[in-house]
Amino acid sequence: MTMLKQILNQAGVREFGVCPMPPEDALLDCRAKSRLPENARSVIVCLFPYYSPGLEGNISRYAMVEDYHKVAREILTPACESLRQAYAAEFSWFADNSPIPEVSAAVQAGLGVQGRNGLLITPDYGTYVFLGEIITDHLFDYSAPAQGSCLGCGRCEAACPGGALCGGAVDISRCVSDISQRKGELTPSETELVRAGGLLWGCDRCQLVCPHNREVKQTHIQAFQKNIVASVAYGQIRPLCKTRAFGFRGPRVLERNYHILYGVD
Ligand code: SF4
Ligand code: SF4
């Protein structure tokens, strides 16, 4: 484990945990599945914290920073290369586009607990983390479960503008974050929910009210500390689509939301 820790720390991953492959919950069907190593035995789940203090604006916090897909690629590609050399085994990385159910695997890997808002709650960074996985045919020791729990306080459910949270389940059809990302014309009720959410992209309400997100640590990842854009003006939407996580949906989605929220360009 020490060599694994050394290699990952050097690449820029400070927090990680290991769970069995396959993990407890069923694998997801996606094209990335074809990149899984044959006879994979371990999943190394990596945390990418992105929180910086004072971030207030008109998009979700995770979208204020550099696109995490790019940041994860820049960290995990060399990490896998070093791990291949060190262990003479197969290592493939995934982030977001992953066959691994990421939150439940992170819980199994001892990185935190799952909240009633459906998100991973970590001890140091609360819910403000991205996840990535390295999957390998090498057998590593598995991590112990994390201490602590979601407080069950219900603040996330009470704050949810879409009424999407109930008993620990998220009804995606009512989640403003999901609705704000849909293409095309929104229905009148979807439009109302985007207005109620008040952001051009995403929704952070169930994170902002969570007691676990008080006094969280700032990210140590430099790429998430610079080039932060908290409030997006209409004219910034197209250029920002090249560097932010919302770029994959294209500029028209944010331009539509801008008109819903502000009415003018
Ligand atoms: S992201 Fe917003 S709409 Fe979605 S579950 Fe959380 S609070 Fe509700
Ligand atoms: S707001 Fe309360 S119930 Fe919701 S995830 Fe946080 S601790 Fe759990």
Automatic annotation (TrEMBL):
Superkingdom: Bacteria
UniProt keyword terms in alphabetical order: 4Fe-4S, Cytoplasm, Iron, Iron-sulfur, Metal-binding, Oxidoreductase, Queuosine biosynthesis, tRNA processing
Segment forming the signal sequence: none
A Gene Ontology biological process term: tRNA queuosine(34) biosynthetic process
Annotated ranges, domain 4Fe-4S ferredoxin-type: 141-170
One Pfam family recorded for the sequence: QueG_DUF1730
Molecular-function annotations in GO: 4 iron, 4 sulfur cluster binding; epoxyqueuosine reductase activity; metal ion binding
Protein name: Putative iron-sulfur cluster-binding protein
Lineage: Bacteria, Bacillati, Bacillota, Clostridia, Eubacteriales
